[in-house]
Amino acid sequence: EAQVTQNPRYLITVTGKKLTVTCSQNMNHEYMSWYRQDPGLGLRQIYYSMNVEVTDKGDVPEGYKVSRKEKRNFPLILESPSPNQTSLYFCASRRTSQGDTQYFGPGTRLTVL
Amino acid sequence: AQSVAQPEDQVNVAEGNPLTVKCTYSVSGNPYLFWYVQYPNRGLQFLLKYITGDNLVKGSYGFEAEFNKSQTSFHLKKPSALVSDSALYFCAVRDTGFGNEKLTFGTGTRLTIIP
Question: How many A-B residue pairs are in contact by the CB < 8 A criterion?
């Protein structure tokens, strides 16, 4: 089954404790992206990657890191999480063909205390 | 710069009535337009998209949307609402300008179908 998977689905952590949210897709997509969803703000892009070893900042990259060492994986790293990073996070992927549909993972609900 | 506006945070419709969820956009070139739906505790699911061609696009679950270039709109519609249509709906746009890969989302519209 073609899908985007994220782990963990739920995470409660404390300020300053490094964490990684994994994202993996099995569709051989070149483009992958991370978003955060907050009430009233919709989805805002954190980072994206056009292909292996090619990453770039989105609209709200502060406090986040990413890497793309393999085509299928695009982990999101919070080196020192803070309470304002409490949010719902989505990973997404698609081909870079014109107009191609973007597919989303199930989401990771992160709470930073 | 590209942007999307969903002017209504909440839309309530009686079951069986037609529904419309509004979306307007702004791009410098031509747009690719998308609608996604989010059910509680779920990710975003693709509903439909406009790339080129026929202005009326049909998608999943009986939804359709009409691309109107002069009004820069892409409203989502369904002739007869079901209670199961209750969800959060997002419009998204991507400017087809060269090298642009970014998809920009609206703030979402919560659709509630009243039995």
Answer: 51
CA distance to partner chain B, nearest, from residue A62 (Å): 18
pLDDT at A88: 96
Nearest CB to B43 within list A31, A41, A105: A105
Q: Give one DSSP letter per residue of A36-89, joined into a string.
A: EEETTTEEEEEEEEEETTEEEE-S--TT-EE--SSTTB--EEESS--GGG-EEE
**Is the CB of residue B108 less than 8 Å away from at least one CB of chain A?**
yes
Contact yes or no for B32/B93 (Cβ under 8 A) = yes
Q: What is the pLDDT of residues A63-78, one digit of tens each?
A: 999 999 999 999 999 9
Q: What's the whole-number mean pLDDT along residues B96-100?
A: 75
Q: Which chain B residues contact residue A29 at CB under 8 A?
A: none
Q: Residue with structure tokens 């820069």?
A: B72
Q: Measured on CA atoms in the order B46, B50, B54, B57, is the torsion positive or negative?
A: positive
CA A106 – CA A25 distance, rounded (Å): 12
Note the pLDDT tens digit of each residue in A21-60. 999 999 999 999 999 999 889 999 999 999 999 999 999 9
Q: What end-to-end distance do the CA atoms of chain A give, in Å?
A: 36
Q: For chain B, first and last CA: distance in Å?
A: 41
